[in-house]
Amino acid sequence: ISNSPQIIIQTMKVATAKTTSPFSLDLVSLSKSHRDFLKTLHGLGITQSVPSSESVRRYLDLWLPLVAEYNNLCCYSLEKVDKEKGAIGVELVGLVPPSDVAWLWHCHRLAPRMYVEYIHNQPRLATKHEESKTEEISVAETKTLEADPPFALQHYHCKDNNTEYDEAKSTEIVEEKGEGKVLILPHTASTAAAATNARVLWEKMYPSESFFLPLPDTNDKSCVTLTIQDEEKANPGGFDLLGSALRQKDFLWQISDPNFDEPTFLAKGLENYHKFLILRTTPNGQNQIIVPTYQIDLMWHTHMLSHLGKYDSDCRHILDGKTLHHDDSLTDRSE
Fold first, then answer.
1. SS3 state at 181
2. Within 10 A of 56 (CB to CB), how many other CB atoms are there?
């Protein structure tokens, strides 16, 4: 019996799983970039206050259409883009959002299904590869507005700014601009090129709009009051964008234990995340809500935020053709 073909096949699958990652992304490395991103936003004060109605407008009405326009440019051949480059000055190197927009985009993409549905229902944003054959809209079936590069931001840092994230603490301030400097994260040449690219396209599309906003005053409570219209605007496709930002602002503290700096702990987190996904394929896992540990949650968030298309593809491979939806309102991790 021990030599039956079925058991041999199962043994081979286990052996393969130990040597081959089930994920198409290096989630351990990306999780470090994820934490750096959250630390930077906290240091800038972005996550310490309620996003303003202006930031919501900039994200929904300016940034997402800009990313859609960039995707349209990417659809052209390199030859055509090169011909138009003198007019638009845009290169195929990605885009880096301003810090206030980066935070809202981060929170929105933590609800992949609602994010994709919102894009699909906005004619100026959605470009479907083919008609969906199911009632559920798949990331793979819709041209999704990805963050490329992921966990990136840029912020105009005035020389006389009093922010906690001062120059002495930062190795990421890389560009002089006017009376201040532009902080770019992560600190790579390719990200710097993508940051410049975003500013060039923004200026082309919105010549009367400022790319950067001043740092929020965390001591000014007057900016917290939002009108009913503001709250309705911050509810794209039924997703509570401000509520998500309020919940996600504490996630940094939940993953700030020194263990999260240890490679072995992160590797174990990746292993446990895979087990968490497998558990969702079992009858018990399908019929009840399973709230992951913060170790698993870091990998789960990192997976979604790094590339929604690859997240969807990986999930469908692991979960027998299904994807796993995320609900950040489920925060009870008590045992």
1. strand
2. 23
